[in-house]
Amino acid sequence: MGIVYVPYHHDERQPDSSIPVRSEAQIHPVTPALPEGDLVHRLTALFADVADEVEADVKRGSTPVVLSGDCLVSMGVLTGLQRAGIDPAVVWFDAHGDVHTVESSSSGYLGGMSLRFLLGANYDLFGEKLGFRPLPENRAVLVDARDLDPAEAEYLRASQVKRCPVDHVELPDGPLIVHVDADVIDAGEVPRLRFPVGNGPSKKAVLEALRAVKATGRVVAMDIACPWDPADELESTRAELVGELVG
C-alpha cells in the first residue's frame, strides 16, 4: 500500500497537521506549485499530478490510498486507475450526495459535484482535460447520503445510481474505488467538519462496512476525504481516525 498525500481543500494548501498521517506505508506527497489561473485550471493541474502518482503506485503493484481535504480528488484517482488499465466502479461513502451539477447547484461549491463529475456531468470542465472515461451510473454505489438537496434527490430518483445504508452495502461487479468522506460518520464523533451532518452512522459501523468491502479483495484504490477545518489541538484524534479509515 502507498499513500498519496494531497493536503488541499480545492486549491488551498492545508497545513500538514490538518490531515495527520501515522503509517509505515510509503507516502507520496502531491504538493505542486499550482499554476496561475482560475480554480478549474488550478485543480486540473493538481488532479493530473494525483493521477500520475496513482498510476505509478498501481504499476508498482500497490493499492493506492489517497488522502485529501475534499472529494474532488477522486477525479485524479479515476484517471490514474484508467491510465493503468483498470476499469473500476466506485463505492461512495458520504453524508452528502455530491451529485449536483454546475447548473443545479445554488452555491456553486464544486465539492458538491464530485460524484456527478465522475459520472460525466459537466465533462468539459475536468473530464476532457484529464482524459478520464465517465463511469456509467450503474457502476456507482452511494452509501448513506442522508443530506440531499432537492435537485440531488430528484436526480437520484431517476438515475441508476444505487443507494444503500452503511449496514447493507451492495457492491457492483469488478474492481472498486472506495471513496470515504469522513463526514459520513455522525458529526458528533468527528469535530470541526466543514459540512457536519448529524443522525449518521457511528465510526464503528462505518469501519465495519469498510472492512467488509476490503475483504472482497476487489478494492484497487481508496480515496479518503478529510473536509474539516484545521485544528492543531485535534491532530492526535484526527491521526487516529485517519489511521482507522486507511486500515
SSE succession: EEEEHEHEHHEHEEHEH
Distance between the termini: 10 Å
Strand proportion = 15-25%
CATH superfamily: Ureohydrolase domain
Return the average pLDDT rounded to an integer.
97
Net shape: globular
Can you characterise this structure?
- The protein is an alpha/beta fold and 247 residues long.
- The chain has one domain: 3-Layer(aba) Sandwich (Arginase, Chain A), CATH 3.40.800.
- Helices cover 30% and strands 20% of the residues.
- The chain has seven helices and ten strands.
- Strands 4-1-5-10-9-6-7-8 form an eight-stranded parallel sheet, sandwiched between helices. It has a two-stranded antiparallel sheet with strand order 2-3.
- α6 links the parallel β9 and β10.
- α1 crosses α2.
- The longest helix has 21 residues.
- It starts with a strand and ends with a helix.
Write the layout of secondary structure elements.
Elements: E1 2-6, E2 8-9, E3 12-13, E4 26-29, H1 39-59, E5 64-68, H2 74-83, E6 89-96, H3 114-118, H4 127-130, E7 140-147, H5 150-158, E8 162-164, E9 176-181, H6 203-214, E10 219-225, H7 235-246
Parallel strand pairs: 1-4, 1-5, 5-10, 6-7, 6-9, 7-8, 9-10
Antiparallel strand pairs: 2-3
Helix pairs in contact: 1-2
Keywords: Hydrolase, Manganese, Metal-binding
InterPro entries: Ureohydrolase, Ureohydrolase_dom_sf
Family: Belongs to the arginase family.
